[in-house]
Amino acid sequence: MTNRHDLEIFVDRLFANQRRTKEVVELKNEVLSNLEARVTDYMENGMNYQSAISPAIDNIEDIEFLIDDNQKIYSYRYRYDLVQSALIYSLLAWIASIPARILPSGIAVNGLLLCLVVLSGVVYLSMSRNLKVYEKQTAVINAGKLFKWSKAAWGLWGIFVIVVSAYSFAMQFGSDVWFGRELRIDGPYSFYVTVLQYAIPLTSIFIPLLIHKACKLTIKHEVNEQ
Length: 226
Hints:
Elements: H1 4-14, H2 22-44, H3 49-57, E1 70-74, H4 75-97, H5 104-129, H6 131-134, E2 138-142, H7 143-178, H8 187-199, H9 206-220
Antiparallel strand pairs: 1-2
């Protein structure tokens, strides 16, 4: 008699990063049933439960190749909502970067964000006119790959913020650290400028946020053909 609870925990971990679609749930149940059958077979051949677990799970360490991540979505509505999110995120980032215009780098970032606001606004308005015409348009998207891109985007964004912040720190305080001098910020204005130097890179958070939103929208606009 196998310990089903232990096998369920293993299978839950195996499928932890997968979307809970009908196909994935069915595959999960199938894997669990196969595991139980394998363990039972090994135990009937003289193995104890703990010894039977290892050979039973050896061949299913990776289930990625078993899962079809292609997903049919309403493509026009998906792109429409994605552009809308891009408009909102870039607008918020532009507003947040306005105080940074006292710095040359802040002017450049704020100007770039304004261009993104205008561009995404124009695209959004253009797509709004054709929404009713193309709202039933469909396409197939690889949701699994998009999920991986989302995770990678957050990782790259974190590295970017750390590297830029470290560079700003080195440029401002590097000589003081090298010569063992006390780190000083002379007055409120100097403090304000220092804070802005570290805050400007944070406005780029709208990029991983947008990719993450793209993942969530695949669920919202999935074509239900049942």
